[in-house]
Amino acid sequence: MLNVGKIEEGFVLDHIQAGKSMDIYEHLGLDKMDCTVAIIKNARSKIMGKKDILKVECDIETLDLDVLAFIDHNITINVIKNGEIVEKRVLALPKEVRNVIRCHNPRCITSIEQGLPHIFVLADEEKEIYRCKYCEEKYSGKEFRK
Amino acid sequence: MRHLMSPLDFSVEELDQLFDLASDIEHTPEKYAHTCEGKILATCFYEPSTRTRLSFESAMTRLGGKVIGFADANSSSAAKGESVSDTIRVVSCYADICAMRHPKEGAPMVAATKSLIPVINAGDGGHQHPTQTLTDLMTIRSLNGKLGDFTIGLCGDLKFGRTVHSLINALVRYEGIRFVFISPQELRVPDYITDMLCEKGIPYTEEIRLETVMPDLDLLYMTRVQKERFFNEEDYVRLKDFYILDKAKLSLAKENMLVLHPLPRVNEISVDVDEDPRAAYFKQAQYGVYVRMALILTLLGLAK
């Protein structure tokens, strides 16, 4: 089994659905940040069978937790200081997400109006359904994890 | 400052106040003939519309105000590529209130976020048409006596008809309403609406033939069934007459049932029904003016 060393300062995103770590890497903008990132794919998991893990050496406050919760609120976040877990954060679905996904309704005003943010508002927490603020086009957070 | 984007923007109590005002306007129009003197309504219509635009213009004119605007995108700066955000900023300098119709869904909402004046959504694509819903509610309240405790049949294209979806969403806030959805299988009401009715415990039934349920209805809301919505010609030919209201079908209805239609009517209501006292669709257009007058006064803060 491959071993990746501990990080001293930063955070670990655990219980990422297997195969989705690169999507999360991109959505969180980690590709643009000057920090050490370890991407572990298909790690063994008692609960999930297989899972992905991201280890990131940077301040947790640089992370957009709303984006992460929208993508998958089952991910657990372990905050690391001096090599130890000092906090576990639980994610909740954000009430609103901005410019994370684009509205694909060709009849939506976002398709022609320049500079308009793509805003989705939580409409049904149980079913994880978001709707475009402008045209109410439905988007399920679950679709991302398919 | 308030805008109107969806019929649900107003609470039931606020709608009651609006309809009370519209009713007062209906009965004493002279009281309101000068209430908007010095005020200007901008009608920004990015796609053609006859009834809605004229209804707004009539409403403002009857209130003593003036109207400016454009009737299609080609005669506006949109043809030069101007954004909705920029247009409304400019219109805010020229007018006191704006009614906007746009083929893109959500355009009036974008306008509302940038506007310095109240914006009324006068129809945005297949999304919302709140003043039509307010008109429908006002008509039902005026002619039926109250909003609640009735069985309403909605007939025709229940899948794509935005007026129908909007009306259902508005009516579920009132007590004692039973829905009967009359449509071909291809055009049945979407699942999210029936799911919502189930969740709220609101009774509904679905039927294919209008005659079957006609005697049960207190109100019948007709919409057009378009040929192009069917998957095959055979089904269209087989079913099209089910959804045409004529004298024979109306003879099965209660004596005080009301027939509503958002108009324009093509052939889904036979012209020989027009003279029947139960035909309320032209009165509906009249109530549309009263309710728009009340809305303009309310959003301008001139309602007493």
Please name the two chains that share the biggest interface, counting residues whose Cβ lies under 8 Å from a Cβ on the partner chain: A-B, 16 and 15 residues
Number of helices of chain A: 3
- How much of the polypeptide of chain B forms β-strand, as a percent range? 15-25%
Oligomer: heterodimer
Number of domains in the coordinates of chain B? 2
Major beta sheet summary of chain B: 5 strands, parallel
Write down the Rg of chain A.
17 Å
Low-confidence stretches of chain A: none
Round the Cα radius of gyration of chain B to an integer and report it: 20 Å
In whole angstroms, the N-to-C terminal distance of chain B is 17 Å
Order of helices and strands of chain B: HEHEHEHEHEHEHEHEHHEH
CATH-derived topology of the largest domain in chain B: Rossmann fold
| Shape descriptor of chain A | elongated
Could you report the average pLDDT of chain B, rounded to the nearest whole number?
93
Name the CATH homologous superfamily of the largest domain in chain B: Aspartate/ornithine carbamoyltransferase
CATH class of the largest domain in chain B: Alpha Beta
What's the main sheet of chain A like? Answer: 5 strands, antiparallel
Residues in helix, % of chain A: 10-25%
| The CATH fourth-level homologous superfamily of the largest domain in chain A | Aspartate carbamoyltransferase regulatory subunit, N-terminal domain
